[in-house]
Amino acid sequence: MDADAALELVKHGTTLLLLDVPQYTLIGVDTQMFSVGPSFKGIKMIPPGPHFVYYSSSSRDGKEFSPIIGFFVDTCPSEVIVRRWDQQEERLVKVSEEEEERYCQAVKSLEFDRQLGPYNLSQNGDWKQLSNYISKSIIVRFEPIGGEISVACEPGMVNNIPKMVMEKTLDDQLEISKFSTSVNKNVNSRRCYYTSIPRFIKQKGLQGQELTSLNLDKTQLLETLLIKDYGGSEDVLLGELQFAFIAFLMGQSLEAFLQWKSLVSLLFGCTKAPFHTRTRLFTKFIRVIYYQLKYGLQKDSRDTSGAVSGASALLDDSWLSADSFLYRLCKDFFSLMHDASSVDGHLLSWGFSCWNLKLLKTVFLGVSAIFVMLASHSFFVIYSGRILAGWY
């Protein structure tokens, strides 16, 4: 990139100015992690839009890390966000309005330019795929008071989490971390405002087989929640799904994981909605899940520091085990697709994109699928010995 182009990105991008952050502290923005060096003052060239900022304080030798604290922001072009490290509380805090104005002017005058690390724009595509339903209104709706998300505010949830293989792995990883006492204050006011998703449907006048059938297909529950809690907006539900996934994977929030699990279980628990009443929603949902699993399960060279590897390890081989909720839900959903007489082409194509991920190859080990494209926006798939028709 030439100097003029870089200067334009510096001027029009968002700058995250971080003052007095101790060396070895880990600072993350979206899918990127920075290890603080002696001259580090923040990150520049951040594209406008929603972002997740998270960090973990370190011991003096940089070998032990505290639980991650994270917060969402929705930034504007040329915006400067200023935070100062509070040594006593071991967290980033806002500065006074007077200081903020002074530092903003200094940033715009390029006084800190050499001490700011550049946002890697080549990774922005991955972030957009993980956050395309997150907006300022989504952030305001679900973030906790003060905006900070941390597993240290969720002590009761660590003890109560179910001990399936995947959940036990998550529990163990979160328990290993060192807790900062300052974050534990007023924990009840620091929880996210997630939508309450009932595990079971109870309806007056129904019992026995009728009640069982109602709980086997979550379509009615989905419709009720969409109207009552999401104002009829499918995109708000998907925004919450992405919000929770990011807070879980990058912020290591156990509460976020449980909410993400509840939403995924709700949607994968529908049998009628994907093929009849909410095909568009499920096409978008499968696309969201595809990018979440694709990013979360990949192992590559970007995970170099201990804390970064720890965040990535929250999605590991335990997600592929036979007792994993995700394994069972995906298997059941693909069985529904297999049994359906016809499936919307967009839903089918994204479904088989998911199938090609490691997770779903494990679910359907030994099963092959062949796509045959036809004219007039139609195709068929040879899948497990059956021919499935589709359109797009």
Automatic annotation (TrEMBL):
Domain AAR2 C-terminal: start-end pairs: 194-349
Domain AAR2 N-terminal, first and last residues per copy: 13-144
Domain of life: Eukaryota
Signal peptide residue numbers: none
InterPro entries found in the cross-reference section: AAR2, AAR2_C, Aar2_N
GO biological process, one term: spliceosomal tri-snRNP complex assembly
Keywords annotated in UniProt: Membrane, Transmembrane, Transmembrane helix
Membrane-spanning intervals of the chain: 363-383
Pfam families for the chain: AAR2, AAR2_1st
Cited PANTHER family: A1 CISTRON SPLICING FACTOR AAR2-RELATED, PROTEIN AAR2 HOMOLOG
The family this protein is said to belong to: Belongs to the AAR2 family.
Protein name (record): Protein AAR2 homolog
